[in-house]
Write a structure and sequence with these properties.
This protein is α/β, with parallel strands linked by helices. It has 10 helices and 10 strands.
Length: 240
């Protein structure tokens, strides 16, 4: 693993007068899976959206591969091969699975479309079975698979995953986390994962950060955080 691919330096984000992120410092190195855990409303999704330029950081800066992207328009950030699978599985419900995957490939051009489609079918065989169904008719788990596959169709250097396990059955969650682990192990895909399911996230991640009320309070390897008594009591034992 080499140097930082994504650096977040002193980032503050506001919604009007409300400070949602308070001086956040963190980094994601190339080839790593890094997770951000925290309670509902801690600011996890805000950080993910701030990386993508909407909302903008009011203080601090965000660097991708050494380049300052803090003020860049969102569509230009995505062209740097950063792909996001947003919270709530925001697929195109009226489009078919195939059309959703085409949309994902649009940023990178269609040179590898057929090969990439086959890769998605290997990872998510259910999508092949549902290829000509509208996205809105899929189950929650299938929609999440489609959201991740659509992001992967752009051949990203960095994959941003926002709450991939939200509202899904444990078996589906395990399948999705296994795919992320395999992509990282076999292709070196760099992943930044925002997740409420702290146990799954920390087991998967090389490193993790804990966000409380918009500020980072702890960081360490996934294993260190899994064994940390404060993390255990707050996030791993049914606590808030």
């Amino acid at each position: 693993m080499s140097g930082p691919m994504l650096s977040i330096e002193g980032v503050e984000t506001r919604y009007g007068k409300i400070v949602a992120l308070r001086g956040v410092d963190m980094q994601v190195n190339e080839g790593e899976i890094v997770t951000l855990i925290g309670a509902n409303g801690a600011g996890k999704s805000t950080l993910m959206m701030t990386i993508c330029g909407n909302p903008r950081a009011s203080e601090g800066r965000i660097l991708f591969e050494g380049r300052d992207i803090t003020r860049m328009p969102t569509h230009d950030i995505m062209k740097l091969r950063i792909a996001q699978s947003p919270e709530g599985r925001r697929i195109f419900p009226r489009m078919t699975v195939y059309e959703n995957l085409q949309m994902g490939a649009a940023l990178g051009g269609y040179a590898h479309f057929d090969a990439d489609l086959e890769r998605m079918f290997e990872m998510f065989p259910r999508l092949k079975e549902r290829l000509h169904q509208r996205g809105g008719t899929l189950s929650g788990g299938e929609q999440q698979m489609l959201a991740i596959a659509r992001a992967l169709m752009s051949r990203p250097r960095l994959l941003l995953l926002d709450e991939p396990s939200l509202g899904l059955a444990p078996l589906v969650v395990r399948q999705i986390f296994d795919v992320i682990r395999d992509l990282n192990a076999t292709e070196g895909l760099t992943v930044f994962l925002v997740e409420q399911n702290a146990y799954h996230a920390l087991k998967l991640a090389h490193r993790g950060y804990v966000l409380v009320n918009g500020a980072i309070t702890l960081s360490g390897s996934g294993r260190e955080l899994l064994e940390n008594p404060d993390v255990k009591s707050a996030y791993l034992e049914g606590g808030a």
